[in-house]
Amino acid sequence: MGIYSLGFLTISTYFQLFKEVTIEILSIIFMPLGWFGIWEGFSKIVDTAPMFIQEEILFNKLSKANYQFKHIEEDNVA
């Protein structure tokens, strides 16, 4: 979302799609929104959720476990 808002602001400024005052007002709104969106996106890539860390620990333990499968015969009662 941050890339889109900064891209919109850049294109509208470069091609002068709006009046100068409108571009200034839009830049006040879209500039912080764009940078916040970019950095929040990066933090979601870098930071992992606690749930994923717990799942990784569980799957690591399950991968190291020894499994033994035993066949249990059922008595055929008719």
Number of domains: 1
Which class do the helix and strand fractions yield?
A: mainly alpha
Between the first and last Cα atoms, what is the distance in angstroms? 67 Å
Mean pLDDT: 89
Describe the sheet with the most strands. Answer: none
The proportion of residues forming helix, as a percent range, comes to over 70%
Question: How many beta strands in the DSSP annotation?
Answer: 0
Unreliable stretches: none
What is the count of helical runs? 3
Q: What is the H/E string?
A: HHH
Portion in strands: under 5%
- Estimated radius of gyration: 28 Å
Verbal overview:
The protein is mainly α and 78 residues long. It contains three helices and no strands. The mean pLDDT is 89.
Condensed summary:
This protein is mainly alpha-helical. The protein is 71% helix and 0% strand. The protein has one domain (2-64).
Write the layout of secondary structure elements.
Blueprint: H1 2-14, H2 20-46, H3 50-64
Helix pairs in contact: 1-2
Index terms:
78 residues; mainly alpha; 71% helix; rod-shaped
